[in-house]
Structure prediction request, 1024 residues.
Amino acid sequence: MQPGYAELHALSNFTFLRGASHPEELVTTAAALGYRALALTDECSVAGIVRAHSAARKLDLQLIAGSELRLTDATRLVVLATSRQGYAELCHLITLGRRAAEKGEYTLCRDDFASGLPHCLVLWLPGAQPNAQTGAWVAEQFPGRSWLAVELLAGGRDRNDCQLLDSLGRRLGLPRVAAGDVHMHRRSRRALQDTLTAIRLKTTLDGAGFALYPNGERHLRARPRLALLYPQDMLDETLRVAERCDFSLDELRYEYPRELVPEGQTPATYLRRLTEEGMRRRWPHGATDKVKRMIRHELGLISELAYEPYFLTVYDLVRFARKHRILCQGRGSAANSAVCFCLGITEVDPARMATLFERFISRERNEPPDIDVDFEHERREEVIQYIYRKYGRERVALTATVTTYRARSAVRDIGKALGLDPLQVDRLARAMRWISDTDVDEQRIREAGFSPETPVIARLLRLVRELIGFPRHLSQHVGGFVFSAGPLYELVPIENAAMPERTVIQWDKDDLDELGLLKVDVLGLGMLSAIRRSFDLIALHRGKRWSLATVPAEDPAVYDMIGRADTVGVFQIESRAQMAMLPRLKPRCYYDLVIEVAIIRPGPIQGDMVHPYLQRRNGEEPVTYPSPDVEDVLARTLGVPIFQEQVMQLAIVAAGFSAGEADQLRRAMAAWRRRGSLGPFEDRLIHGMAERGYSESFARQIFNQIQGFGEYGFPESHSASFALLVYVSSWLKCHEPAAFTCALINSQPMGFYAPSQLVQDARRHGVEVRPADVCTSDYDCTLEASLQTQPAIRLGLRMVKGLSADSARRIVTARQHRAFVSTQDLVERAGLDRGDLNALAAADALRELAGHRHRARWEVLGVEPPTPLLPQPRIAEAEPMLRAATEGEDIAADYNHLGLSLRRHPLALLRGLLREKGMWTAQELRTLGDGEWVVAAGVVITKQRPGSAKGVTFVTLEDETGHVNVIVWRKLAERQRKILLGARLMGVRGKLQRQGEVLHLVAQHLEDHTNLLGTLVTRSRDFH
Prediction:
């Protein structure tokens, strides 16, 4: 018998650490079993509903939005939305519960149901000991809209329970309905579900005891099986409940705030007025006819799609930032339009981009506009608080980010649940460093001292592979804000974030994209902080104020510097891979920088687009196009698809995709790693191109690029905005290296290089750098007059490790009244404690007052803090005859207490010993030819293993003459993993690889010489 059935109580893994299946798995399995409907009822959450909705769209299955709720008096309910109004009521209720508790928790009581949820249905989950009074409350509170859920789970008392609940329901007037308390899509997930329970309870599987379910019945069961368990009327009742639920997420409509428009104007007229004012400001002598046509076209398209409120919302944020001198820059497909240039959202002049953005909003694909705004990372909080003040927490919230299990976190949690010793768990987790996040490498397990064949480890590996990719919790997105005209909680529940004064919605950015809802990304960018600080320092020192718009464009000296890969500290093009590309690409104009920013990305790399582009650019290969249609798309990149937008356009013009199919492909690209959903598009793309006469190799190339963009999509519109910051930061480095370096250090942490490397680079460019000193240094690094063309950099007290910011500022304030005359005077007037003094002495910042390091330490020991009876204690002591620190001791202390040294490089002291070992300097390596076998050594300053590099690790070594760029192939990395990850002074034997000015050392053997550093502590910046 195959009865009709609708599952009304199912939890996905968005009921964190309870549900053991993805929403998509539940939907797909329910459809395969022939269920009429499935209610996704995650606990006090609708976080998984969008993913379930996306899967149900493609299947003949009704999806019901609902939620399981536990009240403070232990009452358990399932609430189902019957309509759009019911969905709003449910979201409001969830918001009430979540906002009343800390992140990850909720609190609901019966008073919260006072509205009666008139557009919702309610199932009472009576539990093992049904309380008739609770049932009476349910029947009274939700008359005609409530049921008693009967969940028969083969617990040995099913027949008695069924009779008991049937009798209770009749007595209370509550109809009985079958439900499954589903926690997994199939029974085989039971082991994982048990493990999740142990993790949630912070215990082991052995210790979880009766908290574990007694069997695996909480899965989607076949309908014949359900017919054996439940009376027919209870199964039929599930269908009647489902019929009353008539709501789909497709009904959600979104309205932007309206108060930005002045009285008497419409959004369209106001946006037009602001644009025209901006046009006069941008082109004071009159805009060209081309610009005017572009603006008319864009305003017409914005009006047609009713996106004016979106642009006005972004404009309002930028206006606030400009008013408070917070540097910002918009990016995205819409951000680089002429309208946004007029509004001041971007400083990218569309005239510089030729025809790049004529389709800045896609009418054909019905894509919402895309504007991200980067603000100075240290001042973004001011913008965020402005948003909350203006719109209130009922109308604006951050999007969430779904934090998922990766290999290391899964190993840690499951290892604990299996009862492994903490030291064993830590060893296993550390073995997962620098390997794939999506799988576990059994070889790494063996290296950690475990056998994958033993029962416990085999079980661990099996569970870890199932758990990887599961949501762990909702985190706060870096800055994606959702605004609304009315209460946002009627669209999606809002809950508290871990950070105080933050609220987030229960959907992440991919969910918003799936539903076509708009958001504005309010992001923090360290380089903007550095650029603004550079402008401020230049204005203070030279009396000239620059801006992003006024920095001289297309300066040949700047492009010469970039072509030499002299880009330490420069935005986006300071990485190893970018530095290797610059001498080959040799950018000579702004659009070259647009390409440079985008070409070192997984899309072009994995699609094998980099070398063909360079060969065509250098005239080594003819520029050809398979058809005129493809030429229209690829002409600006010499026939090679580099940008995400080009790939999408190719799907339309070369494979015959409709606008709707192209939009589906775009969404699938964004989610393919998580859902594995690109497969259906492969045949469609390749066959479509074959039907139009394109070769299979070209089609495969395009598909590989699509997969690469799924790893990390980087569109042309974002690259264009970043290219402006690349140019401005390069101009600053070229013409104002002192101000630029000073600003970079003051903006830390950011970028690819630590202050030590930034200072060394500045000194190589002729900039004088002066030490931190209590008698002259401010808190931040500053510029001082110098006999050189460039001012000198004075290191700030912020560099002194162990000195608090408050103490440093008290020193500066006290010194402004009069100079310090002694260490005792410093202590009394700046209110320093023993820890502050020790930090200053160790960093050699007391040299002017106390002499060299050893004398400063001695003097600090004799300083007495003021007391009420002795406000100015004075103790006369003979001056001790202490020797000065050796150069090596000073260098080690500098690194340990400042993070850098202005003395010689540590390897300069070790050079004699390194010479005996036959090791070349970085400068000497540059004189050698391709294929030479050499030995070199250096302090490890960066390690990087990009996902697109197929396991290759790039290591940068530093010695007294420069940098050595080392390539470590995967096999060597696996064989010498301990040295690769642990060595701070690394020796490398290998073969030089030279291509023009680009030099790499391909490692054949690694050596750990860290012991030669003695007490000197160095740290590398590692990127994965």
Residues 566 and 579 are 8 Å apart (CA to CA).
